[in-house]
UniProtKB/TrEMBL annotation:
Its main location: nucleus. GO terms for cellular component: nucleus. Keywords: Metal-binding, Nucleus, Zinc, Zinc-finger. It is found in: Nucleus. InterPro entries: Matrin/U1-C_Znf_C2H2 (IPR000690), U1-CZ_Znf_C2H2 (IPR013085), Znf_C2H2_sf (IPR036236). PROSITE patterns: ZF_MATRIN (PS50171). This is Matrin-type domain-containing protein. The keyword Zinc-finger applies. It holds the Pfam family zf-U1. One of its GO terms (molecular function) is nucleic acid binding. It comes from Giardia intestinalis (strain P15). Residues 3-35 form the Matrin-type domain.
Length: 46
């Protein structure tokens, strides 16, 4: 099963918990999530 991260727009090859956890703990994911939510909030505030 393929796992798709909507925030980073990346597909994790194997949908293993370990790869998902290591990805969501990664710096890039966190940055993308913060950027994603700030964009969502700013669009709602407008």
């Amino acid at each position: 099963m393929r796992y798709f991260c909507p925030y980073c727009k990346v597909r994790l090859r194997r949908g293993t918990m370990r790869s998902i956890i290591s990805h969501t703990n990664g710096q890039k994911h966190r940055y993308n999530v913060q950027r994603y939510w700030s964009a969502v909030l700013s669009s709602e505030l407008r």
